[in-house]
Specification:
single chain; 381 residues; alpha/beta; 5-stranded mixed beta sheet; 12 helices; 10 strands; globular; binds 5'-O-[(R)-(carboxyoxy)(hydroxy)phosphoryl]adenosine; binds zinc ion
């Protein structure tokens, strides 16, 4: 039976990896919050270092592409159909049996509630049958802790998380100890890429399409706004920029291929400038409040954009800190990040009861409120 860690132990744990006081663990992680059905098994050594034994991700992109975005009901049904098989493959590839697991971790939110219910209920069933501890993981926490799995990064560090549902700058101070420094007040960054792609007739998911089109576009042709530039807070706003692209696009109708490329290049250039400016503020706030970060870390699908990686490197250089980015497979949604967050929590004795409820919304930083326009967008958590 696991004991809850004392406050002192938690504090020591938050200082870095070397003071870990726990034993080795094997954890199964389940991810079903959006359109990836994923499961993975990871091993966490008593020195706090992690090893991925398997990491199976089934993307549902093909199911959703005809609709131009993720359809929650289709996603939930697909998770039901796919999850057992994905877990079986993850266990087989890791060569681990359920009885050997130290814990089963599932993303209990935030996300599309139908999918979250499928993953969490499945995890509960496994823990009930095998008497294994359950760890209900916050999906955002899993993104936040991934660089400790891939780079054994000690706390504290600064996370830039940008996906279809989130755009945040977060101070990661320890397991369960997060301070949100900035967030979007309207659309998420990936959502803005997807919407721009859709209005220009590019297929879903739009981010990679916009990036590709931007490569041959003229970024100077349109003078798009740079939202939030120079503001003293570290927040983002993307819907005004998106509307500016829409207005230019309607003015130019019918669009030639070169118009599309120029619009994408102009949009992406505005995003890049915004990212650097917002991170200048976020990283300065970090240093002021918590001292110098160990690194700037990126996560989320948007971080696979090469130009955006360049902007993040620039922001890190300007702040005099290292830039770290996990491999693309671990930046986007996956089971290994859930398993790892579960293992980090388990090492501190942080397990959850079977009554734990799935959560559509779940802020990483309990001390912040959601922006006003929050409910209108996918960036609603
Ligand atoms: O993290 P992710 O795989 O899933 C979640 O949203 O949770 O992120 C997907 C998002 C989509 O909005 C997609 O368009 C965006 O990340 N994305 C990109 C790129 N690749 C994926 N955005 C810009 N440039 C890219 N290369
Ligand atoms: Zn995610």
């Amino acid at each position: 039976m696991l004991r809850r860690a004392s406050k002192a132990q938690v504090c020591r744990q938050t200082q870095g990896l070397n003071l870990a006081i726990d034993t080795a663990s094997l954890v199964l992680g389940i991810e079903t919050t959006c359109d990836e059905t994923a499961a993975a098994v990871i091993e966490r050594g008593s020195d706090g270092r992690g090893r991925i034994l398997s990491n199976i991700v089934h993307s549902q992109i093909e199911d959703h592409a005809p609709y131009g975005g993720v359809v929650p009901e289709i996603a939930a049904r697909a998770h039901v159909d796919l999850l057992d098989g994905v877990i079986a493959r993850a266990m087989r590839q890791a060569d681990v049996r359920f009885v050997q697991l130290s814990g089963v971790a599932a993303a209990a939110g935030p996300g599309l509630i139908g999918g979250v219910i499928v993953g969490l209920t499945t995890a509960k069933a496994i823990t009930l049958v095998h008497g294994t501890p359950l760890i209900a993981v916050n999906h955002l926490e899993a993104h936040a802790l991934t660089p400790r799995l891939t780079h054994a990064l000690p706390f504290p560090y600064c996370l830039f998380l940008a996906s279809g549902g989130h755009t945040q700058i977060v101070a990661v101070l320890g397991v369960g100890d997060y301070v949100r420094l900035g967030t979007t007040v309207d659309d998420a960054m990936g959502e803005a890429f997807d919407k721009v792609a859709k209005m220009l007739g590019l297929p879903y998911p739009g981010g990679p399409q916009v990036e590709r089109a931007a490569e041959t576009g003229d970024r100077e042709r349109f003078a798009f706004p740079r939202p939030m530039l120079g503001r003293p807070d570290a927040n983002f706003s993307l819907s005004g920029l998106k509307t500016a692209v829409r207005n230019e696009a309607s003015r130019l109708e019918p669009l030639e291929r070169q118009d599309v490329c120029d619009l994408c290049a102009g949009f992406q250039a505005a995003v890049l400038e915004t990212i650097i400016d917002r991170l200048d503020v976020g990283l300065a706030q970090f240093a002021e409040r918590f001292g110098p970060p160990q690194a700037l870390v990126a996560a989320g699908g948007v971080a696979s954009n090469q130009a955006i990686r360049g902007a993040l490197q620039t922001a890190a250089d300007r702040a005099g800190t290292e830039f770290i980015i996990p491999p693309p497979k671990l930046c986007t949604d996956n089971g290994a990040m859930i398993a790892w967050a579960g293992a980090e929590r388990l090492a501190l004795g942080l397990t959850d009861p079977l009554e734990t409820a799935p959560r559509a919304r779940w802020l990483l930083d309990a001390n912040v409120t959601t922006p006003a326009k929050f409910a209108n967008t996918r960036a609603g958590f």
